[in-house]
Amino acid sequence: MSISCSSVETIAFGGTLGDAFIVLCKLYNQYKTEGKHFRLIRHSTRPEMDGIIEKMFKTVSFIEYPTPCRAFNNIEELYYALRNSPYGIVNTKWQKGDLETYFIDYGNLNPYPVFEIPITNVPRDRLNVGIQLHCGAEGANGRGFSLRWLEKIRRNFPSKDFCIYLFGTGTAYYPETAIEDSCKKHRINNLVGKLDFAEWLSYIKSMDAFISLEGFAALFAMSQKVTTIEYNQYPRKLDGSVCPAWRKDNIIFNINSNRLLRKIRYWKRKYMKLENLYLPRNLPYVRDFICNSISNDTNAN
């Protein structure tokens, strides 16, 4: 998107889709209060993600994202380039880091950006719960829920009270027929591989609640005030991706807290190419949290 604005500030950052989204949220208040517009220069070892990041930035009017990004072979080269960038740098956490040179007023953030995306018109006779089947690229960064977990989902979220939607693009972890068969068996709306980027975000915005592993999908849902349950495979102290303002209305579970088991799991999926799939066990608590959250929101309105 090319912005026709007399004053456009150029900002540099590093990372992929979730990182780009955090930068967008951190800059949103300056757009709302001062009318600022930005041109974002991405530095990354993952240049192939330009397409999806460009699609995200096209859903707002205050950011221009020129492509291709600045591509690097390793993190060391990337950090060196950022440290020597002629532009202001915004980091991809919710606190000022060593690399951040652009001023962010952390006391006056507005991490609830408005996107130029309509809400999908879904039936409202039951609670609508979205599930992001998988996140990240295949390989060491890929993670998802096991299809066997869907049976437990339906057992704890009965169809008379809950309408379940399954999202994702589909990966080698999940044969297409296996996804379809599982969704039919458990009366789940299968939208895996059936939505474009804007449609996906539109559906997430329309949900009463959203369940996902850590990543862009969970962050987007939180920013749109959709009750979100995030299963995080990283230690909380290392994960600064969730805005403090989002934490009070949502739940973040650490499902990989044992350091030794976490390392074993990492090496298995990286070198043995094993699936990085989870079957969280706390669904009764999650169901009750969702029901209570929706009830409180209804009473407040």
Provide a brief overview of the structure:
With 301 residues, the chain is an alpha/beta fold. The protein has helices at 17-34, 50-57, 75-83, 149-156, 176-185, 197-206, 216-223, 244-247, 259-271, 283-300, and strands at residues 8-14, 37-44, 63-64, 70-71, 88-89, 127-132, 134-135, 143-145, 162-167, 189-190, 209-213, 227-232, 251-254, 277-278.
Radius of gyration: 20 Å
Name given to the CATH homologous superfamily of the largest domain: Glycogen Phosphorylase B
Count of discrete structural domains:
2
> What profile does the largest beta sheet have?
6 strands, parallel
Shape verdict: globular
Per CATH, the architecture of the largest domain is 3-Layer(aba) Sandwich
Which terms summarize this structure?
single chain, 301 residues, alpha/beta, Rossmann fold, 6-stranded parallel β-sheet, 5-stranded parallel β-sheet, 19% strand, globular
Structure write-up:
The protein is α/β, with parallel strands linked by helices and 301 residues long. It has 2 domains: 8-104, Rossmann fold; 127-300, Glycogen Phosphorylase B (Rossmann fold). It contains 10 helices and 14 strands. The chain has helices at residues 17-34, 50-57, 75-83, 149-156, 176-185, 197-206, 216-223, 244-247, 259-271, 283-300; strands at residues 8-14, 37-44, 63-64, 70-71, 88-89, 127-132, 134-135, 143-145, 162-167, 189-190, 209-213, 227-232, 251-254, 277-278. The strands form 3 sheets. Strands 10-9-6-11-12-13 form a 6-stranded parallel β-sheet, sandwiched between helices. Helix 1 (17-34) runs parallel beside helix 2.
